[in-house]
Amino acid sequence: MRASLIQIAVNPEESVNSRRERVASLVRAEAGADLVVLPELWPTGAFGYELFAAEAESLHGPTYEAMSKAARDAGIWLHAGSVVERAADGTLYNTALVFAPDGQLAATYRKIHRFGFDKGEAVLMGAGTEPVTVALPDTTLGVTTCYDLRFPELYRTLVDRGAETLVVSAGWPERRRAHWTLLAQARAVENQCFVLAVGTAGTHAGVEQAGHSIAVDPWGEVLGEAGADEEILRVEFDPARVAATREQFPALKDRVLGLEAPGGKG
Question: Pfam family example for this protein (predicted)?
């Protein structure tokens, strides 16, 4: 399986509309990949809080339209990162969009863990409540966003729902880059999954971004890692290695806490 992680530079001098058009072109250029993944809130920047309300869009807004067409043109599965979604009741959400190769919206995910403690995203946006998986022909994706990476119980839930490849779309700051790589590898090892984690580059709203998008296999080995600048990280992996790893080293079978009981939650 071929995946392209597009590490977008969020330049404050580039308009949202211009960036949207540019990213659509980058996605189209990845025709031939099986899966393309974009970062969190790349239209505005994850720390561009002052833009959230002004650039919020409906679920089927301009980013949806541009990414749906790009996925269809390229014939690829596209995790289009996330956008500031304005719901019908006016609530803002950090919402990820996943498109099928025909351009149809396959799934949405409203970020469950909002970053900022008592400011920023944590107070400006509503919280999602439902973990999301997406079945692709060769693997099942578990969809997560940035700060979610710090909460292993979400990833256990995704594994219980069949996830084999965990996707992390992020706008992670440079000052905590060590945590980014450490946690990406930890989520891969503890869940015996592939992890595809893509962030943004550049500096926006005064926050330098970590970049360093990374792909990790179920043993924690790094398959590829980007640098600090805008870059496309392309990796190939065999989804069948998830089942093989779990068979060879069946640690998940020894779980005691948090298991689902037959016929319901346990």
Answer: CN_hydrolase
CA dihedral sign, ordered 160, 165, 168, 169: negative
Would residue 266 count as lying in a domain? no
> For strand 194-198 and strand 165-169, is the pairing parallel, antiparallel, or unpaired?
parallel
Identity of the amino acid at 215 = A
Residue from 146, 164, 193, 231 carrying the catalytic annotation: 146
Q: Note if 221 is an active site residue.
A: no
Question: Per the structure, how many domains does the chain have?
Answer: 1
Is 257 part of any domain?
no
Write down the catalytic residue from 40, 85, 121, 225: 40
**pLDDT tens digit string along 192-219?**
999 999 999 999 899 999 999 999 999 9
> Does 40 qualify as catalytic in the annotation?
yes
Give the domain extent around 82: 2-249
pTM (predicted TM-score)? 0.95
* Cβ partners under 8 Å of residue 257, min gap 6: none
Question: Residue 153 catalytic?
Answer: no
Catalytic-role residue among 30, 55, 85, 111 = 111
Encode pLDDT of 72-126 as tens digits.
Answer: 999 999 999 999 999 999 999 999 999 999 999 999 999 999 999 999 999 999 9
236: which strand partners?
2
CATH number at residue 170: 3.60.110.10
